[in-house]
Amino acid sequence: MGYLLDALRAMGTTLVTAFRKPTTVEFPAVIRPRAERYRASFALPDDEHGELACIGCLACERICPSQVIKMKPSGKRDSPVTGKKRQYVDTFVLDLSACIGCELCVQVCNSDAIRMTREPEVPVFSREDLVLDLERLRANAREKTMSWGKGSELLERQEPPKVEKKVAPKPEAPPVAPAVPVVGEAR
Amino acid sequence: MSPLAHGAAYGVVIVTVLLTIVALTIWFERKLAGRMQSRLGPTMVGPVGLLQPIADVLKLLQKEDIIPTDADRGLFNVAPILAVLVSLGAAAVVPFSPSTIAADLDVGVLYVLAIGGVMVIPTFAAGWGSNNKFALLGAMRAVAQSVSYGVPLVLATLVPVILAGTLSLSGIVTWQSHHHWIAVWPVIPGLPAFFVFFLALLAESNRIPFDIPEAESELVAGVTTEYTGAKFTLFYMGEYLHTLVGSAVAAALFFGGWDGPFAPGLPWMVGKTLVLFATVYWVRWSLLRFRADQLMELCWKRLTPLAVALVLLAAAWVQFGPGGSE
After folding, report:
1. Residue A117 domain-assigned?
2. pTM for the whole thing?
3. Which long-range contacts (CB under 8 A, 24 or more apart) does A96-100 make?
4. In A123, B200, B281, B326, which residue has its Cα 20 to 30 A from A58's Cα atom?
5. Residue A173: its pLDDT value, please?
6. For residues B94 and B251, what is the distance between their CA atoms, to the nearest angstrom?
7. Does a structural domain hold residue A76?
């Protein structure tokens, strides 16, 4: 009789659930709010003078754990805007298909030249669409919403707090464990 | 109209309608299952996912038709066709309305029971023909199961037969339209008999909690393990058809078939069948699978004595009670 009652209770549960509102969110149509630090794709923004901020220093290419960034720096030349000498980047390719989203490239960038973007959807129809070249990265910078951090801010956060150097006292030698007293006969 | 032409004409209509209903019930089951698990079920294909069964069938038909190298090709190919034919065959004697019945047999109940018993043959043929150990295990379990649930099934069916005093399904329905639905009055042999019949129906159509022959977690897919594409579709359809026709038989035997207030006829029969069918799926998505030995114990030690008692009670009711088969 017990399992009959259990069966009825199980059927009660499913019946009640069947008349509740489903918890499913129909994803492409409805997108739940993303986390604050959600990040999906990349962008190469301009600096304050209106030229590409990237100076082709290779820092991000070197730190990338999955090695998805390939760039070709041009030599140093005078900037047509400011007149100062600086380096530019000729090609910049970021393969999003292997990117693990660790944001290390953003963290190491000294010139705030690579940012991550918040995008509702990353999936695409062909692998080629995931290979971002300079054009698309710059377009992303113009069109997409930026994610939470940029290089200078992140570097600042990472700097370890300064503490005065203290000479730690030499730890005392651990006390020698006393020999286990023999109580009674050994069993 | 000659009986043959009558049967053929109604047969075509009933088969067409049944197959359409099966397609819709697959959609309905997935929706129901979804809602019971707090999901939405199919939503993408067609309005509220109504075209999902068509998409499913199209997908299945595109698949490669694989016949295992060492399979018994004859059995392997014939089994799925038999499975559908047997399921459809039972529908021949089901009275959908006073006039909608393909073949009004005098021994309709016997015919339904017999053809339900035959259902095990395509299952075993598929299991044996596949030459696959999981399929064979599933088939053997199906046979063992059919021996167990067969007895209470037949005994439970005897209750309406005794009360109505006829073996004809349409006769039983007519009797109920003059007296009471058997599940309603007399309550004591009627409702428990329906309960036993329903459990046996679950076992016969291999539905959870008695889906031991195809127990996915133990036997991959049981007898359908080696089947792909169109043949798998046939098995799948046969399973749903079997449940649907079984629900229709239960509605006719215990709930007065096409009888009902206001407008007795086809809508009542369809409505009752679908409610019973939905209940089968409600059970399916609520409970867990019984072990084979638990099924045996339930069938032999509990349902069979219960059903025997109910048959005796029904006989006593007819003999000494107020309402017999006049």
Report:
1. yes
2. 0.73
3. A96/A41, A96/A42, A96/A68, A96/A122, A96/A130, A96/A131, A96/A132, A97/A68, A97/A127, A97/A130, A97/A131, A98/A66, A98/A67, A98/A68, A99/A42, A99/A66, A99/A68, A100/A65, A100/A66
4. A123
5. 62
6. 10
7. yes
Q: Is A22's CB within 8 Å of B40's CB? A: yes
The DSSP H or E segment spanning A100 is none
Q: Range of A52's domain?
A: 35-151
State the ipTM, two decimals.
Answer: 0.71
A117 DSSP 8-state letter: E
Residue A70: which CATH number? 3.30.70.3270
> What whole-number percentage of chain A has pLDDT above 70?
87
Is residue A45 domain-resident? yes
Looking at residue A1, its pLDDT comes to 64
Contact A53, A47 (CB under 8 A): yes
Measure the CA–CA gap between B310 and A118, rounded to whole angstroms: 69
CB contact under 8 A, B40 and A26: yes
Contact predicate B208/B36, CB 8 Å: no
Chain A positions in Cβ-Cβ contact with residue B286 (cut-off 8 Å):
7, 10-11, 13-14
Residue at A39 is within a domain: yes
How far, in Å, CA of A113 to CA of A111, rounded?
5
A-B contacts (CB, under 8 Å): 38
Asked if B285 is an interface residue toward chain A (Cβ–Cβ < 8 A), one would say: yes
| A chain contacts of residue B36, beta-carbon cutoff 8 Å | 14-15, 17-18
Query: Domain ranges in chain B?
Result: 68-320
Q: What's the CA gap between B204 and B219, in Å, rounded?
A: 18
- Identify the DSSP state of A175: P
Dump pLDDT digits (tens) for B119-143: 888 888 888 888 888 888 888 888 8
> Which residue on chain A is closest to B209 by alpha carbon?
A7
CB contact under 8 A, A11 and B286: yes
> Which residues 16-45 of B have a C-beta within 8 angstroms of A?
32, 34-40, 43
**Closest partner residue to A14 among B40, B209, B286, by Cβ?**
B286
Nearest CA in chain B to A10: B286
Q: What is the mean pLDDT of residues B250-275?
A: 82
Q: For residue A30, what are its two tokens?
A: 């409805």
With an 8 Å Cβ cutoff, is A22 touching chain B?
A: yes
The tally of domains found in chain A comes to: 1
Residue bearing tokens 């009360």: B163
Check: CB of residue B264 under 8 Å from CB of residue B110.
no
